[in-house]
Design goal:
Blueprint: H1 9-18, E1 21-27, E2 30-37, E3 42-46, H2 60-63, E4 68-73, H3 89-103, E5 110-115, H4 117-129, E6 133-139, H5 163-177, H6 187-199, H7 212-217, E7 223-229, H8 239-247, E8 254-258, H9 265-268, H10 270-281
Parallel strand pairs: 3-4, 3-5, 5-6, 6-7, 7-8
Antiparallel strand pairs: 1-2, 2-4
Helix pairs in contact: 3-4, 5-6
Length: 286
């Protein structure tokens, strides 16, 4: 799928969505919306900040060949209703866990993969569900209480910009923060970014640079694994320290760095991520 030209990005998204089912669970803030594909052991996917299920657009169908894939729009993102403020990682994790309890009632077991802020929320959810989570895979995780990356200058949207100028701003900002290679910022990536940012209502604030995940991992019983892009703009400067911290919670922790890819590694290196997930998830639980 990498490098595949996309002439009509929204039609492609609609085709992939139509191959699965749209599910709605009632949680404290209203409706939480999920997309589901495939049959088999449940695999829950949580997206990053300013995202939606489409952060996993290059992963859901390959993973559904072996799993029942459940990709969330976390509350405040995509089609899901937004929680009341203040927005916190703990409150968001409570809502996601409540939605999962309705989709997969106890004692059902599941695997969980989270990208970026979804990795943080995934850790908190795994702590809540205990032994029900078999394996937790963290992609480009923040929330470890490590030194934040230096800020990077972004282009700004200005009033009166035409559609092509708007797309240029989003494309350049994707290359600054999310993607490593110019060809990765294709029409699909830009369209997803525009749509997701427009619909994002959850204020992530300092959650990505907090220690929320690190504190939750002490209560996680799942086997841990991690995937990073080698040019991750958010966590690339402390990859070794991230791996050391995570290995401290699971001596069998497995880590893989994909070169050359940026923060949105599940998009930019979709085939490699899918292969790693398939390999890791096929292994027995601890």
């Amino acid at each position: 799928m990498r490098g595949e030209p996309v002439k009509d990005p929204r039609s492609r998204v609609a085709r992939i969505e139509a191959l699965g089912a749209r599910l709605v669970t009632a949680v404290a803030c209203g409706d939480m919306v999920w997309r589901a594909w495939g049959e088999g052991p449940p695999l829950v996917l949580l997206h990053g900040a300013s995202g939606s299920w489409t952060h996993w657009i290059r992963n859901v169908l390959p993973l559904a060949e072996r799993h029942r894939v459940l990709a969330a729009d976390m509350p405040g993102y995509g089609d899901s209703d937004a929680p009341s403020e203040p927005h916190t990682a703990q409150a968001l994790a409570d809502l996601v866990a409540a939605g999962l309890e309705r989709l997969l009632p106890a004692p059902a077991r599941l695997d969980l993969a989270g990208f970026s802020m979804g990795a943080i929320i995934g850790g908190l959810v795994a702590a809540r569900l205990g032994a029900r989570v078999r394996r937790l895979v963290l992609l480009g995780p923040g929330g470890l209480g490590l030194e934040p990356a230096p800020p990077r200058a972004l282009l700004r949207l200005e009033p009166g910009m035409g559609p092509e100028a708007v797309r240029h701003v989003h494309r350049q900002n994707l290359l600054t923060l999310m993607l490593a290679r110019p060809e990765s910022a294709d029409e699909l990536a830009v369209t997803l970014q525009i749509d997701n940012v427009t619909r994002s209502r959850f204020r992530s604030g300092t959650i990505p640079i907090s220690d929320a995940l690190r504190r939750a991992l002490a209560h996680v019983r799942a086997r841990l694994a991690g995937i990073w892009g080698g040019h991750d703009a958010f966590t690339g400067h402390h990859l070794a320290e991230s791996r050391r911290v995570l290995a401290g919670f699971d001596p069998a922790f497995e880590a893989h760095v994909i070169e050359p890819a940026g923060h949105w590694v599940n998009y930019e290196a979709g085939d490699e991520v899918n292969a790693l997930l398939a390999e890791w998830l096929a292994r027995p639980a601890r």
